[in-house]
Amino acid sequence: MSHENLTTLGMDPGTAILGFGVIRGTSDPVLVDVGVIETDAGSPMPDRLVILHQRTSELIDRYRPDVLAIEQLFFARNVTTAIAVGQARGVVLLAAAQKGVPVAEYSPSEVKYAVVGYGKADKRQMQEMVRIILNLSHAPAPDDAADALAIALCHAQTAPFKDRVAATTAAEDADAARAGRS
User: Fold this and answer.
1) Least CB-packed of 43, 128, 129, 139 within 10 Å?
2) Catalytic site residues?
3) What is the model's pTM?
4) What are the structural domain ranges in the chain?
5) Which CATH number is correct for 7-173, 1.20.210.10, 3.40.50.10420, 3.30.360.10, 3.30.420.10?
6) 20 vs 4: CA distance, rounded Å
7) pLDDT at position 1, please?
């Protein structure tokens, strides 16, 4: 599978601000769109989740991504924040599933390693590498949007490698199966 026209929708989930970034390509990715979906902190949580779901579905309809890339949920010290992020992440995953879009999940350290080459990179380093990789005049803002682009870039960097490994493993399995039948 060629990845040069791969469209990746990266999402950085949150209930107040959900970052999104759309890129096309893998070896020389191009920025298609970047932004945030914001909800009113004073609104009831179910209403905020509906907004996030609707807007995520609209993004999927508009850009027709080949994959939605999202960070894996990690355990934070602030349980309330972790629950809110989990809720936002859930509606994003639901929208992708409803639209038939495959989901790729990456840990925060995988994203940092893929984009910067160091799994403990700080925000400034991440934003600068996103700027450089996408050939932008300035780093994307706010942080949530930049993080979403980093997640999309992680997938763009990782997908071709994962596909090569899967193809090699499948070929080795087929060879082993043929050898077992002989």
Assistant:
1) 43
2) 12, 71, 144
3) 0.87
4) 7-173
5) 3.30.420.10
6) 20
7) 47
